[in-house]
Amino acid sequence: xxxxxxxxxxxxxxxxxxxxxxxxxxxxxxxxxxxxxxxxxxxxxxxxxxxxxxxxxxxxxxxxxxxxxxxxxxxxxxxxxxxxxxxxxxxxxxxxxxxxxxxxxxxxxxxxxxxxxxxxxxxxxxxxxxxxxxxxxxxxxxxxxxxxxxxxxxxxxxxxxxxxxxxxxxxxxxxxxxxxxxxxxxxxxxxxxxxxxxxxxxxxxxxxxxxxxxxxxxxxxxxxxxxxxxxxxxxxxxxxxxxxxxxxxxxxxxxxxxxxxxxxxxxxxxxxxxxxxxxxxxxxxxxxxxxxxxxxxxxxxxxxxxxxxxxxxxxxxxxxxxxxxxxxxxxxxxxxxxxxxxxxxxxxxxxxxxxxxxxxxxxxxxxxxxxxxxxxxxxxxxxxxxxxxxxxxxxxxxxxxxxxxxxxxxxxxxxxxxxxxxxxxxxxxxxxxxxxxxxxxxxxxxxxxxxx
Length: 452
Hints:
Blueprint: H1 5-12, H2 24-45, E1 58-59, H3 62-68, H4 71-94, H5 103-122, H6 126-129, H7 131-138, H8 158-172, H9 180-201, H10 204-209, H11 211-219, E2 225-227, E3 234-236, H12 239-242, H13 252-268, H14 272-281, H15 289-318, H16 325-335, H17 339-366, H18 392-421, H19 432-450
Antiparallel strand pairs: 1-3, 2-3
Helix pairs in contact: 2-18, 2-19, 5-11, 5-17, 7-9, 8-9, 8-11, 8-13, 13-15, 13-17, 13-19, 15-16, 15-19, 17-18, 18-19
């Protein structure tokens, strides 16, 4: 996730398969068997749908809903988030223009990875803390009753998918992911696109096109808290009941493919063989020079990984007998929510040490944004704890657990949904292709995490 190989090792905490306490082969075989056994058990014992999106959940005390819905509290949270964004902006513009700047850590760690953790815990929080939404409200957007034109239904989540791809491209395939200028240009472009789109289409633009909001909404389907649509109260319940409520719109599978494919490519791009390939052939790419050639090759690799996820998942979802042609076209969207646990599992497996340790470093830098020797809140670089990096066996176990658990939950969710959408007589055989794809994802994910 950072520019140099040394920084990558620090970021991910485990240098490679030589750090594993058991052979990589055992990890691969164990992960696959866990998945196969899960499928075998649910296929035999799980003959009717058990997860209910309409499950009302257990209502929390009324004061919880009152507090969550409080306009004053929401305004305070939004204002704090906006002030924090401005603080990062001060660091980005007037802070040290080198690796000591807090912007890259705030952008790639606290925002990208921290948003997943926060959304899985409390729900789609980006709707409340989004700085562009807050600015839009301050500019009078909340008072606009009728947008200039309705948001095209056919666009669905495609703008968000494009925005997510632009983010992961900047991080993984651009000539210099750590460039402060590149990050600033991306942020300004994002803000301009969001505000212009909201000016034309109203607030629905944020819900469909904001990459961070769509990302937050997707992973929040695993949060224990949600809203009872009938009573409006905040309830707590099984995340698996909540998982199928992910809206089915054009571009849903594309969003999942970008998130899962980019994380897999991040691991693959750290392989020495791939780095050597890029170094050897970058100059052969015409018209763009060495840096541009390397970026072009990494971009091709990133596109390939995203395309493979999208094609294999869609193909597996469509490979179901006993359905009409129209139903077959709908199956990828109706099963797309099954990828959410896998995405969350990969994100935590891949970036956990990055979030915990680089996140601490970033907070320390934000305590001294201008590098003038400040120690706001008493924070100092010596306060950073590298517990995960210092315990590779523990980190390895956590990584494997997240990957396997994500796939197991994904298989269970896919089976339960299959019982709803696949006709009787095809409910078992209709899942075999999807099961094969899940096994392939597990093998690939574990190998990419540890095999390099």
